[in-house]
Amino acid sequence: MASYVVMEPPGRKGEAASNAVFVRDGFSLVAFLVPPLWLLWYRLWIEAALAVAAALALGALGEIAGFGMTGTLLSLLVSVYVGLEGAALRIAALRRRGWHEWGVVEADRAGDAELRYLAEADFADSAVEPVLAPSPQPSRARPAGPALGLLNYPGRA
Known about the structure:
Layout: E1 2-8, H1 13-18, E2 21-25, H2 29-33, H3 35-41, H4 45-64, H5 69-96, E3 100-107, H6 110-125
Antiparallel strand pairs: 1-2, 1-3
Helix pairs in contact: 3-4, 4-5
C-alpha cells in the first residue's frame, strides 16, 4: 500500500475537504524520466530551473574535465534525486503557498485515498471526537525526522 500526504488549502474548513491535494509518497518514475517537465507540471519553477542548471553543469564539468561519459552519468543523479524527492519538493512548495498538512492516508490508489480522507474528514467534523488509546511503549517511539532524503516527509516516523 502506498501512503498519500493530504494537503488542505488555506481557507474555510468546508472548502478544504473538496479541494485537498493528495501527494503520493514514494518514487516517481515520470519524475525520474523527465525531471524538468515533471517539476514544471506541478509548478515548481525554481526547482525546475535548478534541476536543468545542475544537469547541464554536471554534464559540462564532465566534458571540460575530460571525464567523457562520466559527466553524463553524473547528470543522471539529478534525475534520481527528483524521482526520489519529488513528493517532498511538492509538499514543501504547497506549504510555502499556505497549504497545511491534514495527515497521511494509506491506500492502493489515489481514489481510495480520497474516499478514506473524506470519511475521516466527515468524522472529524462531527460532534463525537474519537478516543485515542495511549501508546503502549512511548519510550520506544522513534523521533520524527529525515531518514534517507534531504527533506522531511511529514507523518512518517
